[in-house]
Amino acid sequence: MKRTFRSWISGLLLALVMSSFVCGIACAATIPEHTSNFYVNDFAGVFTDEQIKVMMDKAVKLCEEHDGAQVVITTISSLEGETVENYANQMYNKYKIGKDSMGVLVLMSVNDRKIRVEVGRTMQVYIPDSKAGKLMNTYAIPKLKQNMFAEGLMDLQDALVTEIKANLSGTIVEDGEEENEFYIPVLWIIVGLVIFLILLKLLESYIEEKERSRRYSSYGGWSGSSSSNIWYTSNSSSSSSSSNSSNNDSTIFSDDSSSFSGFDGCSDGGGASGDF
User: Fold this and answer.
1) Domain ranges in the chain?
2) What is the Cα–Cα distance from 111 to 246, expressed in whole angstroms?
3) Cα torsion angle, 216, 221, 222, 223, sign
4) Distance, CA of 106 to CA of 74 (rounded, Å)
5) Contact 172, 182 (CB under 8 A)
6) pTM of the entire structure?
7) CB 60, CB 253: distance < 8 Å
8) Contact indicator for 71, 59 with CB cutoff of 8 Å
9) Residue 128 CA neighbour count, 13 Å, CB half
10) Are the C-beta atoms of residues 154 and 55 closer than 8 Å to each other?
11) Domain 40-182+267-275 carries which CATH code?
């Protein structure tokens, strides 16, 4: 009797586990394939053809000029019960946005009234979570709340592209406006190295002079010191860097835009989400 009862309980638990697993698979949101445009996937139909063209121009130009950096805008009608974070993360990884994960996905769900800025692993250096949230709240959310979906997303795309270009070129940008300050780490490294070498040379000369004074008496002969000779050497090395530029095979989009696609990008869940 006990064995029968235990078998019944075991069978029930196994059935519950299997049903939960099957339900999880069945209930998972289906991520659609990207469109031939790739950079603008308007599944919810919020953009006009002219608006798509304007956005495509900016996205393609960014990718070509900055070695595979990509900003992809996607609209959907529903998240199908999935969280916006999980949906955006799955979509980013499926589309493989950005060369070496240098990409950003903006996902907006019209019916759920949610938006997510999903940032690639490498791009997070330039667009951290706080910056993604600030750009989203400044440029998109106010217009999305007024149901100006196209305008809000276009403004956000423009802000993201401007921010990425500024960071990659070394220009500090705050709220989309260029400042007069430039952050050029390589230049500061070179200046610091030069100053270090100068100080090192001065220190070397000072030590040699002190040693010379110690070893020779004021009469020009050897001093009574029995210390051994000390030799000082300085080695300076120079390094050179070379940059390899890769040709981008993307063609400015035309009637045949099937060549647009992602690279090898992946996201570790960084970014920002919002409601409107």
Assistant:
1) 40-182+267-275
2) 41
3) negative
4) 6
5) yes
6) 0.62
7) yes
8) yes
9) 2
10) yes
11) 3.10.310.50
How distant, in Å, are the alpha carbons of 8, 9, 14, 193, 197 from that of 3? Answer: 9, 10, 16, 79, 83
What does the chain come to in residues?
Answer: 276
pLDDT tens series, the chain, 276 aa: 445 545 544 454 444 444 444 444 444 579 999 999 999 999 999 999 999 999 999 999 999 999 999 999 999 999 999 999 999 999 999 999 999 999 999 999 999 999 999 999 999 999 999 999 999 999 999 999 999 999 999 999 999 999 999 999 876 544 444 443 344 456 667 878 888 888 888 888 878 777 766 665 444 444 444 343 433 333 433 333 333 333 333 334 544 445 688 888 888 889 999 999
Helix (H, G, I), strand (E, B) or coil at 216: strand
- Tally Cβ neighbours within 10 Å of residue 253: 21
> Which residues touch 79 (CB under 8 Å, ≥6 apart)?
29, 87, 109, 112, 114
Q: How far apart are CA 123 and CA 117, in angstroms?
A: 12
Tokens at residue 2, please? 């006990």
Positive/negative CA dihedral, 137, 142, 144, 149: negative
